[in-house]
């Protein structure tokens, strides 16, 4: 079997080993996938050691995605813009390649699995950290009518607007604070980590209309804090990030193996665990 792993700190709760094992059985690919907890001060050593002993590919998670990006000798276009990498492998010449599959994972889950149309939609993205930067490119590629980035620290949202202006095409790309938007959006995507502190972004209730689709990039076995807030304020369609997690994994698996696994059975299996 060929060796793959996810590296993070902490790592024990990662679902990636289970997801990739399911992909391996489904496709028959000779993939063995483990979890590695890197010391906070030695991500680089951990990666080097993994590839020196013959490892084929890594997923990278919190808090090492930016370090993975810096470490690589080559970055895919989508990783370059994301400023962070969740996927590493060696190319033919042995150069460490960084890819980022989070954004395609989100768009696949939204559009393909849930049938949400982003083209011409009015989209509100909450947050302006690494997670949001990682998904803006693929979201803009769907050509929404507008994409509003709202963040607690507005200058960080403004910096993302500057960075992605060249990718916006005809999409109206704008930055603001949480309290500013008033009219209902077609799609609201939560990319903040506010709920980890038990907080909610202080949005106006009016941003949620009866047809608003709400997507929390977080996932949990029960309804996420953000999605519960949305349901309490009139949303009828809410999704969490489990599908995104499985879709980004499938995209990494394809980058490594050249084979695309089916995701629906895996999403179903994780959901019913
Ligand atoms: P990540 O990799 O999860 O994106 P990050 O880069 O630290 O992590 O970004 C965290 C995001 O969640 C930021 O948008 C942050 O807002 P600030 O830019 O104002 O810091 C947001 N966030 C974190 N805690 C929050 C809270 N309690 N309320 C609102 N937003 C919060």
From TrEMBL:
The active site is at 65 (proton acceptor). Residues 117-195 form the Quinate/shikimate 5-dehydrogenase/glutamyl-tRNA reductase domain. It catalyses: shikimate + NADP(+) = 3-dehydroshikimate + NADPH + H(+). It holds the Pfam family Shikimate_DH. It comes from the Bacteria. SUPFAM superfamilies: Aminoacid dehydrogenase-like, N-terminal domain (SSF53223), NAD(P)-binding Rossmann-fold domains (SSF51735). Gene3D superfamilies: Leucine Dehydrogenase, chain A, domain 1 (3.40.50.10860), NAD(P)-binding Rossmann-like Domain (3.40.50.720). GO terms for biological process: amino acid biosynthetic process; aromatic amino acid family biosynthetic process; chorismate biosynthetic process; shikimate metabolic process. Residues 6-88 form the Shikimate dehydrogenase substrate binding N-terminal domain. This is Shikimate dehydrogenase (NADP(+)). It comes from Marinobacter persicus.
């Amino acid at each position: 079997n060929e060796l793959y792993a996810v590296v993070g700190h902490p790592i024990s709760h990662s679902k990636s080993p289970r997801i990739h094992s399911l992909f391996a059985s489904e496709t028959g690919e000779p993939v063995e996938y483990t979890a590695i907890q890197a010391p906070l001060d030695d991500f680089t050593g951990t990666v080097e050691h993994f590839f020196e002993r013959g490892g084929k590919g890594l997923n990278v998670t919190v808090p090492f995605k930016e370090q993975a990006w810096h470490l690589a000798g080559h970055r895919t276009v989508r990783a370059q813009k994301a400023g962070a990498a969740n996927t590493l492998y060696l190319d033919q010449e042995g150069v460490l390649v960084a890819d980022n599959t989070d954004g395609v994972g989100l768009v696949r889950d939204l559009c393909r699995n849930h049938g949400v149309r982003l083209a011409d939609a009015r989209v509100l993205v909450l947050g302006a950290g690494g997670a949001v930067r990682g998904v803006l490119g693929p979201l803009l590629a769907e050509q929404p009518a507008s994409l509003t980035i709202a963040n607690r620290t507005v200058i960080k949202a403004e910096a993302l607007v500057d960075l992605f202006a060249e990718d916006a095409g005809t999409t109206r790309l704008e930055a603001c604070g949480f309290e500013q938007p008033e009219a209902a959006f077609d799609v609201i995507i939560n990319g903040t980590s506010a709920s980890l502190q038990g907080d909610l972004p202080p949005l106006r209730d009016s941003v949620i209309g009866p047809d608003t689709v709400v997507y929390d990039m977080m996932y949990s076995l029960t309804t996420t804090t953000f999605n519960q807030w949305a349901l309490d304020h009139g949303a009828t369609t809410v999704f969490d990030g489990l599908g995104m997690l499985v879709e980004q994994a499938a995209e990494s698996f394809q980058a490594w193996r050249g084979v695309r696994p089916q995701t629906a059975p895996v999403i179903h299996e994780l959901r019913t665990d």
